[in-house]
Amino acid sequence: MTKIKNYTIFKAEAALNKPISDATHKLTEISFIVLRIETISGIIGESYLLSFQYSPRAIVGALKDVGEMLIGEDVHHTVDCFERINLHNEYFGIEGINRWAQSAFNIAMWDAWSKILQQPVWKILGGSARLVPIYGSGGWSSYTIEELVAEVSDYKKRGFTAVKIKVGKPDWKEDLERLRYVREAVGNNIAIMMDANQGMKVPEALSLARAARQLDINWFEEPIDHHDFDGYQLLRNQAGISIAMGEREYSTLPLRELIRLNAIDIWQPDILRLGGVEAWRDSAALAKSNHIPVLPHYYKDYDVPLLCTISNGKGAESFDWIDPLIDHPLKIDNGMARPHSRPGWGFSFEDKYLVEL
């Protein structure tokens, strides 16, 4: 009943009128790889990952490699399967695209197991349904001022109480000017965060952070290369603004080093990069033991349920990209969301949007 019989890989794509850019990437499509596993009793477990236009053949190949290893495995053996995949993938590396595939199967296995038990994931993990703060994300560097103001104004109109925009222009003073327009548009009761996507150097990031304090910026996300731990330490000590990072990490080792250096204020785990449910929660526990709040990267439909299972969750990030493609989008009212009560993760991609790969 609980053993994996087969798996299927699909692609879905959200609408994108024109390319969008941050400080380090130009995105030409908003694509998702969707994984479905089926047990011998016909239960379907599903997961997805955000892929944009990057490495479509490589991620499908990695998913097939992992899938062949897991045929015949029980869907509730997530820990054992994780370790076995790690051992198998060690030769070419457990980080990178192999970890994405590993995480996708982990998340789908949790979906299937929860459906077998007819319970939502958060309840199986001992959580309690509660409202989780959600912030509106976007503010792409490629936006004109008019587009930027229109987006944050729309978030405000929809009841969001916090927004995040991209920074990392060649001249940090242009970032500051864009932040001023955003503050003017949303007023003083909306929190504003800024994200450089690792696109700045320490001197420029420090100058922007200090200048942006006058606008009451809530936090500065990924200001510099995520490997530059000493740079993060310097920024946290001198910038006068909270420093957030974590979405690029494939284990808790970077978090341990950032904690040792007292170089981080907010931990932002990415469930697909870290390794799935257990790895996400392990990182949250490490953050909690060092009094660091957790505010995960991107995957709100997984993060909201998981945030209901920890005590140091700060909120979740919202893009609307998958909402038109799934059967039960997360309902956000006045910047707050409650996890689904349906079994599993509580949502599924609609078949009409899926193309089998």
TrEMBL record:
Highest taxon in the source lineage: Bacteria
Keywords of this entry: Magnesium, Metal-binding
Example of a GO biological process term: carbohydrate catabolic process
Cofactor(s) needed: Mg(2+)
Any matching Pfam family: MR_MLE_N
Keyword Nucleotide-binding among record annotations: no
Domain Mandelate racemase/muconate lactonizing enzyme C-terminal: 145-242
The keyword Isomerase is assigned to this record: no
MF-aspect GO terms: hydro-lyase activity; magnesium ion binding; racemase and epimerase activity
InterPro entries reported for this sequence: Enolase-like_C_sf, Enolase-like_N, Enolase_C-like, Mandelate_racemase_C, Mandelate_racemase_N_dom, RHMD-like
UniProt-listed CDD domains: MR_like
Identification of the protein by name: Mandelate racemase/muconate lactonizing enzyme family protein
Originating organism: Sphingobacterium corticibacterium
Lineage of producing organism: Bacteria, Pseudomonadati, Bacteroidota, Sphingobacteriia, Sphingobacteriales
